[in-house]
Amino acid sequence: MDYPLPEYLVEKAVREALAEDLGLAGDITTDPIIPEDARGAAAIVVREPGRIAGLDLAEAAFRALDPGVKFERLLDDGAAAEAGATIARVEGKTRALLTGERTALNFFGRLCGIATLTAAFVAKVEGTGARIADTRKTTPGLRAFEKYAVRCGGGANHRFGLHDAVLVKDNHIAAAGGLGSALERLRARAGHMVKIEVEVDTLDQLRDALQFPIDAVLLDNMDVPTLREAVALAQGKVLTEASGGVNLETVAAIAETGVDLISVGALTHSPRNLDSSLEWTP
């Protein structure tokens, strides 16, 4: 994948996940059963078709417990896998494989689920020119990984946080006393590299927003005919993003209105983990 996950973020997340699982006593099931010098091998297998994501995290979970572990990837992140496919093989200390199994699969299954759902949305809008994007509706602490999984599924990333792009929403406008006041204060503060997007609910709000030097408009919860009018009004002036009421049944019609982006919160707040397992190899 382009733009791989930063190693320091992977290691930090894995350490925290293992600490949560191992607590103060360690693995009180595995350690009494398995000799310290025992070695084993296993395979990560998916039980259903899907898009792969999260192998860096899975590998790091085992490597944190056994720095000498061998982790062989048979498919890479971003690849499509069939049901029953072996995704990776891992060999090392048996204790490490058994103790790290759940942490590895939790990360792997979650990110594969996001990538798989994203790929389904991307397929629905193929040929329209619209891009599928994520939102900030992510699991606290896992945003970088969940947004990475969206990229593995062929989607695009929206802003990563409140710190890297401006999105003026209805409550900002109400609290500031109007859009003009809000934008005047933003322009006095925002750096020259910072993009400004404004959320609008109606065509009148869109016309008002287009009077100002902004970069994008978020067309919130508009029906398809209204979206089509909004795209025509904004054409060539700003980037258009549709949001709200987007699902696999509605996304194609939304894309056909000509919007540039369709942001889908469900990509990260409502995916189903891809069914996967660690299968022991004799």
From TrEMBL:
Keywords: Glycosyltransferase, Pyridine nucleotide biosynthesis, Transferase. GO terms for biological process: NAD+ biosynthetic process; quinolinate catabolic process. Substrate binds at R102, T135, R136, K137, R159, K169, E199, D220, S243, G244, G245, V264, G265, A266. Residues 114-278 form the Quinolinate phosphoribosyl transferase C-terminal domain. InterPro entries: Aldolase_TIM (IPR013785), NadC (IPR004393), NadC/ModD (IPR027277), Nicotinate_pribotase-like_C (IPR036068), Quinolinate_PRibosylTase_N_sf (IPR037128), Quinolinate_PRibosylTrfase_C (IPR002638), Quinolinate_PRibosylTrfase_N (IPR022412). GO terms for molecular function: nicotinate-nucleotide diphosphorylase (carboxylating) activity. It is an enzyme of class 2 (transferase). Pathway: Cofactor biosynthesis; NAD(+) biosynthesis; nicotinate D-ribonucleotide from quinolinate: step 1/1. Residues 27-112 form the Quinolinate phosphoribosyl transferase N-terminal domain. It catalyses: nicotinate beta-D-ribonucleotide + CO2 + diphosphate = quinolinate + 5-phospho-alpha-D-ribose 1-diphosphate + 2 H(+). GO terms for cellular component: cytoplasm. Its EC number is 2.4.2.19. Belongs to the NadC/ModD family. Involved in the catabolism of quinolinic acid (QA). Hexamer formed by 3 homodimers. This is Probable nicotinate-nucleotide pyrophosphorylase [carboxylating]. It comes from Methyloceanibacter methanicus.
